[in-house]
Design the sequence.
């Protein structure tokens, strides 16, 4: 290992989505901050793809208490209450930061941020910038980042955390050409986003490969509720290669209705009160059930219809949807969309405190990679808020860590070099293993689950783990590491799903009958780490 | 499933001396995008192929590339057989990956002022059309000015305008943009025609910034001189001889039966600098049964003022020109200057139909001319191709009379006030045109815009002719052959 390839910073932030950039902006107020991105900052991650909005209590008639209750109820009471409390109380301040830095949200005639209704909420509290809210936030955050002293390293893939005794002291990465980079830091923030790319059908960008869960787990951190995968009810079904592409909840927020192939507005049979604006877990199961019962379209979806809305409303409030579907030959002003559930968000993640501390000293986590905020089902609009609330908290907490002498963990570097070396003698293209994993996860750990199917899926993942992925060149090493991250993340999801012997929120066990509802469940979080695994008892996490 | 054969640009600066195009055969699902072609190559043929992508849904701007020379997003562009996939015209790092960071870093950031005020709904609506940029750099790749002068580029100008509209920003974006090359844009429209979000950078950002610069007294002196000339004389160029309007009656009757009638808006350049070309056009029209009505009170269309942001007396020009035709009950006004035509179609609100002369000639199915033994290339005027969407019509007409050799459609540098304001840039762009012309081996250059014709002629040794002049030569040749007494 050449010494000039060793970089140091006070705070290392891994990930360049909404949470990572927000954390870096905050941390830069405390000391030298280095942001490392697997992609080009501002382009990777899922924040920039988030369409619908940002939940914040901004009106007299609304209250943080109602937002708190909505979030808990939506999360099937599995949420960590302290984390929810912070989310709802600080979301309004964090949107204020964005506005101060130049975000262009839609506004009302009184120059207040406009809000629209979203699923599972009793007040229309979802702030938006058309249907490109996440993109608007990302543009603002990157803009702000340029006004700080944060150093940015783009297109470097972190492959391992490094430890100094039990304390996380930085990370090892690979640059675009496959060269090893070692970064030492007093504090490390994981803001790597989610990982539903482990499923065959997913809304996630290419970076949603679960790297943070795997990095944290392998370093010894504890993760909670990894079985809780949100299947977004409305993903595109055509063209086949772009299946799973997000069709924003804002479509239903603006008045879009769901119909099966017989033209029936089927949500009245599943949630007559909230209809299309029920929580995502309920709507996803309803759509999946309709399709399973043969009431789906030829392309394997149901109809999502906005043709009854004024054309101008579609054009001004849903411009991205309109443009995307037009590109694929469908004018949503005239014909209904076809949609089906798609793997969207991992509610579980690294266990954190209110200050985003993980169970490992000097390692912080924020955004989707952290668990506990959303419980067993996330409300639409709460994720963007989470990125800002907890991104700021992570940057602050990491920034406040005491400086200390940094030393290179030679042993870890050697272990990594060894691992990388094996990829050159591998014999299976990583893309082949990824495809097998995605199919197995979709079939065995999807919307409806049973113990035997989960066991079978775990068996497949373990088998895939024994294969030897091949790196065709140095530049392909990162792909092999990412594949291994996906395998680790998938195994965490399936192991946790086996641990939770109940149906709760997004996690449905068809092989288990229970005589309690979510609010009275005897169970709390599932937890997994190198040292232990299990499920908490006592309910009400 | 379908099988496609594609060519992909491959280049690894670490081991290749020069780039090359590699052929691949891939099998894809119906509706697959270009990105899926790249995935298929990477997964099944060659894992060393490097390309960027992230969101796969047109929202992140990572995957912009060129397909058959056109900048597109790989994730949104449908995959077709026989396409050539190349990187953007930016420094290549490897294969399809270009170095985006230096350009992304040039985009300005909002600097919050001491006092905070939320934008009003009107301000939000004004900013929105400039805000959906995904920074894919397709516009930067397509911008011809960036290739010859130091200029912050189209999307940086877009952001400058967006910031100038925002009450929260505390910087002087107008002066900044002037020093960053605001006046180097030729308004060729290439940037917004390739923009996946269809952001009208020339009209909605650059011309608007120039308008604000004008209010701050930052308009270039040479542009001010043009405005003064228009104000004083009604014309954007000065008089050097007898004008076209002085040489024609108000109504030109066709030689044979009347097939149709059009009003004619001649424009300053054909009126005062190239009257002979306009007269040639009249001959072609008369020969083809088209009656031409030429109101003499018409003046400059105002295009030089709009492109340079000097709008003070634009409305006077507009109403005088519109009234000239309305007064005569004309339902179709013909332009032959691409700039005037684009201005009438896009910047005026005309109560009559506006057609370019190429459209008019094709509509009336003209008499075939004799073929001339000449190899010609065609220069697409920006304001005809992108300003009016006229691409096939000139080619169809040209092919009736000479052999056409294509060259890439790139701005010659004469538009947007650049010829007068930044002459060295205009010359550099024309020099690039000269090289392209030479590559074609054509003996003559044909165009359909007085600015292009005049400007390119200064930079090439080949004759530059208007389409109608060449058609007229074809007619003369036809007549000559007819009158020749066969010798026996």
Sequence:
């Amino acid at each position: 290992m050449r010494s000039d390839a060793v970089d140091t910073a006070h705070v290392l932030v891994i990930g360049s989505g909404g949470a990572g950039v927000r954390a870096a902006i905050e941390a830069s107020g405390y000391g030298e901050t280095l942001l490392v991105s697997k992609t080009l900052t501002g382009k990777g991650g899922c924040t920039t793809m988030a369409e619908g909005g940002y939940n914040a209590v901004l009106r007299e008639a609304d209250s943080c208490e109602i937002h708190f209750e909505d979030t808990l109820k939506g999360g099937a009471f599995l949420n960590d209450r302290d984390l929810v409390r912070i989310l709802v109380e600080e979301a309004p301040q964090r949107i204020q930061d964005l506005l101060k830095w130049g975000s262009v949200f839609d506004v009302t005639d009184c120059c207040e941020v406009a809000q629209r209704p979203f699923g599972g909420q009793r007040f229309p509290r979802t702030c938006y910038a058309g249907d490109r809210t996440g993109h608007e936030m990302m543009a603002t955050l990157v803009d702000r980042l340029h006004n700080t002293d944060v150093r940015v390293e783009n297109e470097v893939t972190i492959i391992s955390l490094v430890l100094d005794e039990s304390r996380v002291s930085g990370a090892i990465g690979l640059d675009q050409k496959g060269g090893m980079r070692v970064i030492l830091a007093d504090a490390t923030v994981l803001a790597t986003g989610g990982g539903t790319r482990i499923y065959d059908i997913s809304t996630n960008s290419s970076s949603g490969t679960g790297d943070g869960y795997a990095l944290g787990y392998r370093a010894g951190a504890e993760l909670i509720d990894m079985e809780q995968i949100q299947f977004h009810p409305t993903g595109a079904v055509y063209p086949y290669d772009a299946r799973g592409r997000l069709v924003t909840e804002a479509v239903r927020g603006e008045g879009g209705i769901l119909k099966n192939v017989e033209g029936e507005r089927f949500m009245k049979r599943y949630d007559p009160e909230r209809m299309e604006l029920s929580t995502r877990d309920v709507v996803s199961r309803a759509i999946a059930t309709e399709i399973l019962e043969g009431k789906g379209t030829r392309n394997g979806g149901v109809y999502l219809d906005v043709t009854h809305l004024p054309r101008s409303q579609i054009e001004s409030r849903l411009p991205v949807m309109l443009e995307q579907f037009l590109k694929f030959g469908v004018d949503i002003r005239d014909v209904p969309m076809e949609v089906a559930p798609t793997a969207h968000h991992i509610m579980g993640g690294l266990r954190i405190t209110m200050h985003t501390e993980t169970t490992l000293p000097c390692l912080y986590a924020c955004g989707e990679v952290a668990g506990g905020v959303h419980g067993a089902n996330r409300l639409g609009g709460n994720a963007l808020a989470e990125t800002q609330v907890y991104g700021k908290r992570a940057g602050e907490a990491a920034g406040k860590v005491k400086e200390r002498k940094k030393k290179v963990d030679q042993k870890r570097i050697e272990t990594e070099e060894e691992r990388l070396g094996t990829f050159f003698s591998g014999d299976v293209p990583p893309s082949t293993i990824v495809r097998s994993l995605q199919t197995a996860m979709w079939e065995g750990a999807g919307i409806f689950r049973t113990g035997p199917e989960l066991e079978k899926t775990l068996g497949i993942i373990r088998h895939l783990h024994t294969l030897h992925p091949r790196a065709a060149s140095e530049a392909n090493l990162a792909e092999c590491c990412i594949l291994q991250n996906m395998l680790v993340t998938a195994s965490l999801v399936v192991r946790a799903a086996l641990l939770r012997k109940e149906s709760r929120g997004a996690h449905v066990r068809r092989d288990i009958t229970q005589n309690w509802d979510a609010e009275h469940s005897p169970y709390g979080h599932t937890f997994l780490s190198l040292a232990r695994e299990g499920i908490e008892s006592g309910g009400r996490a | 499933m379908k099988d496609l054969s594609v060519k992909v640009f491959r280049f690894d600066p670490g081991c290749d001396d020069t780039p090359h195009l590699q052929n691949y055969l891939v099998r894809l699902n119906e509706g697959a995008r270009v990105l899926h072609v790249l995935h298929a190559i990477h997964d099944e043929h060659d894992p060393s192929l490097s390309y960027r992508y992230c969101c796969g849904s047109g929202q992140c701007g990572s995957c912009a590339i060129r397909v058959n020379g056109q900048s597109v997003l790989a994730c949104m562009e449908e995959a077709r057989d026989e396409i050539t996939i190349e990187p953007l015209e930016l420094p290549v790092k490897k294969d399809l990956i270009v170095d985006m960071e230096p350009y992304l870093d040039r985009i300005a950031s909002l600097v919050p002022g001491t006092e905070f005020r939320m934008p009003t709904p009107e301000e939000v609506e004004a900013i929105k059309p400039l805000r959906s940029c995904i920074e894919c750099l397709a516009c930067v790749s397509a911008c011809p000015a960036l290739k010859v002068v130091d200029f912050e580029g189209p999307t940086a100008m877009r952001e400058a305008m967006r910031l100038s509209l925002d009450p929260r920003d505390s910087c002087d974006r107008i002066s900044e943009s002037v020093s960053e090359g605001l006046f180097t844009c030729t308004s060729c429209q290439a940037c917004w025609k390739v923009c996946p979000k269809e952001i009208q950078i020339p009209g909605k950002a650059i011309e608007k910034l120039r308008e604000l610069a004008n209010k701050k007294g930052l308009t270039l002196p040479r542009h001010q001189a043009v405005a003064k000339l228009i104000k004083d004389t009604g014309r954007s160029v000065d008089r050097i001889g007898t004008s076209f309007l002085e040489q024609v009656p108000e109504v030109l009757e066709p030689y044979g039966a009347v097939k149709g009638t059009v009003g004619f808006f001649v424009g300053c350049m054909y009126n005062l600098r190239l009257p002979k070309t306009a007269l040639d056009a009249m001959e072609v029209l008369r020969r083809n049964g088209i009656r031409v009505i030429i109101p003499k009170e018409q003046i400059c269309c105002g295009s030089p003022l709009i492109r340079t942001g000097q709008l003070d007396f634009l409305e006077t020009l507009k109403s005088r020109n519109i009234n000239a035709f309305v007064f005569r009950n004309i339902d179709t006004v013909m332009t032959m200057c691409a700039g005037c035509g684009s201005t009438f179609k896009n910047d005026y609100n005309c109560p009559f139909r506006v057609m370019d002369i190429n459209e008019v000639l094709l509509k009336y199915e003209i008499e075939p001319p004799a073929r001339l033994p000449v190899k010609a290339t065609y220069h697409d005027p920006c304001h005809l191709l992108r300003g009016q969407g006229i691409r096939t019509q000139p080619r169809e007409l040209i092919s009736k009379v000479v052999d056409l050799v294509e060259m890439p459609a790139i701005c010659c540098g004469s538009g947007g006030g650049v010829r007068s304001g930044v002459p060295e840039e205009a010359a550099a762009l024309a020099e690039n045109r000269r090289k392209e012309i030479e590559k074609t081996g054509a003996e003559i250059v044909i165009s359909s815009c007085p600015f292009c014709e005049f400007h390119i002629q200064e930079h090439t040794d080949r004759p530059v002719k208007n389409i109608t002049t060449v058609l007229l030569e074809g007619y003369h040749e036809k007549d000559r052959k007819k009158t020749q007494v066969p010798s026996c």
Observations:
- The first helix of chain B runs from residue 34 to 45.
